[in-house]
Design brief:
5-stranded parallel β-sheet, globular, homodimer, 6-stranded mixed β-sheet
Chain lengths: ~600, ~600
């Protein structure tokens, strides 16, 4: 078929072909045009409103380009060095609503890739290309696993335990890690596991005493808000009797076990206090305090894995210093046990605020929630059934959609049009849970569904805030058990009360500031320098020009899991799903650099906002 | 088709049918005859030389019957209460060498079952029936998993950690376990996990300080002798980069993690010192020492899970008490580090003897192995490739043979004819490794391949001894690095030497008795009474009338994982594969008893040997 290709797309007679044949034929044309280096021909295989999302296979970046100009530009810059080949349909394609879609595999000069395409009228509408394996640096798994035992005999050999003990004794002391991961929560641990498998010497540090303490230290009734199918760590899925919503201490114990089983080099009770990058030596100098002792680490690469959130936002309020009760940010809140019979004020109305209000109420406190601006509410069950269930559920597994496949399918929807997939879901949710929403409105609660009605996940991507996944607290607000004051802020604080912006005075023994977090580059400001924080700019958000996510459009989350304006500085974080999936690409980028592969970055993001 | 059944088998025109149709048709006839309660008709669907192996689905026993009389007798005794139904082909059957074989599912009055059948000339040659799930008592997994979070709010509720802490504080103290598992190695832990999933209150005790210490405490260079695919624990397979032969400390750490993740109630540093059964109260009284403190437990059921081996055999040798050096059984041997430059005598030539000789040699000792009788040697690689690879390997996984399927296929070969499957494999191994065997013979080593040439696994089943899986030590014996004296025993021991049965005197600083173990009922003799040990009789072995496995033929391993002559007393053990697979049936038998289901035992084994 390739000899009939003239450079203009051979619009497939798609009605006559099976979906698999149609996609296979498109891949054949695509392959041929790429192999010829005919950028114009490749471009013309795309629809005018196309989106091509590449996860490090062409661009050594997480990058989405749009339309013919975008595709053309990407190829101009990357085709010669990428040298893609062997595009082949994987499994069977499907067709619905005029869209033909399916999986494929391909290779580049240095790697193996997998992707997902959607065709409309024979032309590519959305394309996802991802790199999953570097040639010559494959993970030692399956048929390639190590033998373990050294059969034969040999005097004085080390066994596994001795080798592990030596590695642990040396790394960070006499042998420097290639990568330092600052933050040992789910993100740092999952990334550490991927780096370990790839043979990248990495050290994960965390200030808490044990892996998993990030979860254990939270309030008592906390369970994961996302369901189990969405939450697996890389390589070692939870057993099939794991609860749908994992209790915090159980996930904490799992992370501690995982760290050990994956043989991570993990330093607990270790806090980073200062870091600077030596541009000449291409090396970081990182000051840490380990078990109370200062120590300097000199990694080549540093990953900030301190969550998707940055430094806590604590509002400066007149009179706060005179308050005789207890006041702290939600991140410092220890749980409600100590506040029985006390008057508690929670400033904020998002996830943390609701969880803390419910916990305080369960423990017998008198609780008032102060809602400053509207909040998106979605019931956990509805979210599971209507928003996640297609990809992450028992039903999905029974249809053969593995976690890896679900992650790629999720990634295959370009951010630019993702809201159009979500809006109908949230319209359905509004109908289904109309009663809850009515009751909340009647209680004075200010509701929203995002600027464009696209709901939770888009809010999460755009601003990382502004919502509550209801696991029960909404009832307390609706029925008045948790008192609500909405449309107000705290104007002033006295010794024993808060004065609201509407003049109301509320007695208070406890004030919790559930007021969110700054951008992750706040950590860079604190640990490296304000200059470097400004140089890399704001993290997270898409540039959607919606509330708290100013434009211009970025196409990808700012600075996450991809090269930043600062060489050797990386950000990792997000929920368990994102940490699991994107740690793959971050680990491969680090591995490629360690091995000295050429990694020309296409479309390095520009900085439009510093915080 | 059922209305054409007259009671005589409708010999399927099997050449005309696909294998799946042939097996489906046989199942239909079988189902119809069973449903009619027509034992004669059912029996006539079997070949004259048939074997029916049932794992607790008809017999509440592990039981193999043979020939028409065996099938007839089993059905006479069990059909009315079992009420089997809904026999259905699962997947596709296959055909080779005149045998049609495949999977099926079925139900009984109280349970769901799965099995595997082999037909010859339209009649059943081998039938495996197994119970995997009790109706109404299914494991809470997959779609039935618990929610975990209690959505909604509730004052004063316990969280997961508090519930676990309460369970741990109470079980064995104020709340008695239904099952006490004595021995917390791989067997006890895996069984504990199954009981936990089934909601059976169980306590696992072990005398060592931490789960996994059973492995950690062994000699330094030890790795599992079986490959990774054969060694998974129930429910949580090893990650796919796990080494082929897992180092001892790594499996130790895994077991410790597994115990925690599976939420077992596991008491470390706890030794059973005495047990007795109260036949009236139907309850055990078990004295244990926990962390130095005596305590009495009162479980309804006791499982001895102290390995497949019993109490160590230490030979009584004249003059042993005068020896000035160190002497101990192989099970007490700490590793070779302390014996550099010392003269070591190892009595025995099986697995432990070889491993200990190699370890001593690696540590610079002068080592002599004393071989009393012939040993079966098989190279680890050959065993993997030729004996296990078809069921337990990457290749098997790629063919879709999961670990569970492999376990059932393994179980589907009746013990009576298993050797006929193995003899050709070991003929092939003898050719492949002829050079090694020649070199060993030249060094004076006495070799065998089992009484009938059926090799390692049959020796393991028949006597649990008499072999070495070569992972390197054979070279040391063949080339003289480890000195060999064969056909001798120790006649006498002096202060600094051993005198052999041929009169030779060898200087010795260390004597290791790699002289094996007694039957597991030795533990009953020690912990309960000699009377009860004699009542339950010898454990392990098939009654094959080969060396160290006296007849009569038993059909199944004696006393393992099935009811014994002593009510409420069970034995569990074996390698990782057996522990994984048979713990399923043992756990289900215990669950059924706890729930008060009727569990009439067909064919309870008679005792022919007491040790």
């Amino acid at each position: 078929m390739t000899d009939t290709v003239t450079g203009a797309p051979q619009a497939a007679p798609h009605s006559a072909l099976s979906p698999s044949d149609e996609l296979a034929r498109w891949l054949e044309l695509f392959d041929a045009a790429l192999t010829r280096g005919d950028v114009q021909a490749v471009t013309s295989l795309f629809a005018a409103d196309c989106h091509w999302r590449d996860l490090i296979s062409f661009t050594w970046n997480l990058k989405t380009v749009e339309g013919h100009p975008g595709v053309h530009d990407l190829l101009d810059a990357t085709l010669a060095t990428t040298r893609p080949a062997n595009w082949a349909l994987e499994g069977q394609a499907s067709q619905a609503g005029g869209v033909t879609e399916g999986w494929f595999t391909f290779e580049t000069a240095v790697a193996r890739g997998r992707g997902y395409a959607r065709l409309k009228d024979g032309l590519c509408w959305t394309l996802l290309t991802t790199l999953y394996e570097l040639k010559g640096f494959e993970e030692k798994k399956g048929r390639n696993r190590i033998k373990g035992a050294e059969h034969g005999v040999q005097k004085g050999r080390q066994n596994w335990t001795e080798r592990r003990a030596q590695e642990e004794a040396e790394l960070g002391i006499s042998v420097q890690p290639y990568v330092l991961v600052i933050g040992g929560g789910q993100g740092g641990i999952g990334l550490g596991a991927r780096l370990k498998r790839l043979g990248v010497p990495a050290l994960v540090i965390d200030k808490l005493p044990r892996p998993g303490d990030q979860w254990r230290s939270r309030y008592k009734s906390l369970c994961l808000h996302d369901p189990v199918w969405y939450d697996h760590m890389p390589y070692l899925p939870f057993p099939d009797d794991w609860p749908v919503f994992c209790p915090k201490d159980k996930i904490g114990d799992w992370l501690e076990m995982y760290t050990k089983v994956m043989e991570l080099n993990y330093w607990s009770s270790t806090e980073c206090v200062k870091a600077k990058y030596d541009e000449d030596a291409k090396e970081w100098e990182v000051q840490v305090i380990r078990d109370g002792q200062p120590l300097v680490l000199r990694p080549k690469q540093v990953v900030f894995a301190l969550g998707m959130s940055g430094v806590a936002n604590v509002p400066q309020i007149e009179g706060a210093e005179t308050f005789k009760g207890i006041q702290h940010h939600s991140s410092k809140h220890p749980g409600g046990d100590a506040f029985r019979g006390k008057k508690a004020i929670v400033l904020g109305a998002n996830n943390s605020a609701h969880d803390i209000c419910a916990d305080l109420w369960e423990n017998g406190a008198d609780v008032t929630m102060l809602q400053r601006s509207s909040t998106h509410i979605v019931r956990s069950d509805s979210l599971m059934d209507l928003a996640l269930g297609g990809l992450y559920s028992e039903q999905a597994l029974e249809k053969g959609i593995t976690t890896d496949m679900a992650d790629l399918l999720f990634a295959s929807v370009p951010f630019r049009i993702m809201h159009t997939f979500h809006i109908p879901v949230y319209e359905e949710i509004q109908k289904r849970d109309a009663d809850l929403y009515d009751r909340l409105r009647k209680a004075g609660f200010m509701l929203d569904f995002g600027d464009d009605g696209s709901g939770l996940f888009m809010k999460y991507l755009r601003r990382g805030s502004g919502y509550y996944i209801d696991v029960g607290a909404c009832d307390l607000v609706a029925n008045g058990d948790v008192k609500l004051k909405s449309g107000v802020d705290i104007a002033r604080i006295t010794e024993h009360s808060v004065i609201l912006s509407d003049g109301t005075e509320l007695e208070a023994d406890l004030i919790v500031y559930a007021t969110g977090y700054g951008s992750m580059n706040g950590w860079v400001e604190r640990l490296v320098s304000p200059e470097m924080a400004a140089k890399v700019g704001k993290c997270w958000g898409l540039g959607s020009d919606t509330t708290k996510d100013p434009g211009p459009w970025e196409g990808e989350l700012r600075n996450m899991w991809k090269p930043t304006q600062q060489e050797a500085l990386w950000f990792h974080g997000g929920n368990l799903h994102q940490s699991r999936h994107y740690s793959r690409y971050l680990a491969l980028q680090l591995k490629a650099r360690m091995e000295g592969l050429d990694t020309p970055v296409y479309g390095l993001q520009e900085v439009h906002h510093t915080a």
